[in-house]
């Protein structure tokens, strides 16, 4: 696993041992950032199921000004800490060892340009996060939520005030791009 573009291009990231963490592949990550384009520049990024920090660190490499990473696994948290230190981006990042939902409720006044959601598949966690985010103004008016699911999963139910703007399928992964409806 490596950073694929930006000032840290080619640098390696440490991975979490075992099968509990599923890092975003370089192919999927490249596709995500191609879709996001210049939205990454000077953005504030929230990575709610950070895993290895792969997506947030890629955003920092591509010009994001700040990343907040939230991870509830202690092992994954330690790997993220090492990755942030090794790449010298501690000053541009904040790392929290807690559940995504705890973070949202504990920091209700945060606002982000990009929100990455890559939770464990087939647990309907994205739907639950979207329902929780509705209660707050976490996303800037033109911000984007990037959510990853298994290819055969669907986002069902009421996701208002968000709407799906685009999807992409890459192997066994489906990526959803959501924005506020009023944009």
Description:
- Helices cover 27% and strands 27% of the residues.
- It has helices spanning 26-36, 54-61, 74-87, 100-106, 125-133; strands spanning 44-47, 66-71, 93-97, 112-117, 139-150, 162-170, 173-180.
- The longest helix is centred in the middle third of the chain and has 14 residues, at 74-87.
- It is globular, with a radius of gyration of 15 Å.
- The mean pLDDT is 92.
- The CATH topology turns out to be Rossmann fold
Using the alpha-carbon principal axes, give the shape: globular
- Give the percentage of residues in beta strands: 25-35%
Helix percent reads 25-40%
> How many independent structural domains?
1
Query: What characterizes the major β-sheet?
Result: 7 strands, mixed
Average pLDDT = 92
The separation of the N and C termini measures 35 Å
Identify low-pLDDT runs. none
Class by SSE composition: alpha/beta
CATH class: Alpha Beta
The tally of beta strands, per DSSP, is 7
Number of helices: 5
CATH superfamily: Vaccinia Virus protein VP39
* Radius of gyration over all CA atoms, rounded: 15 Å
Q: What is the N-to-C succession of helices and strands?
A: HEHEHEHEHEEE
Strand order of the largest sheet: 3-2-1-4-5-7-6
CATH architecture: 3-Layer(aba) Sandwich
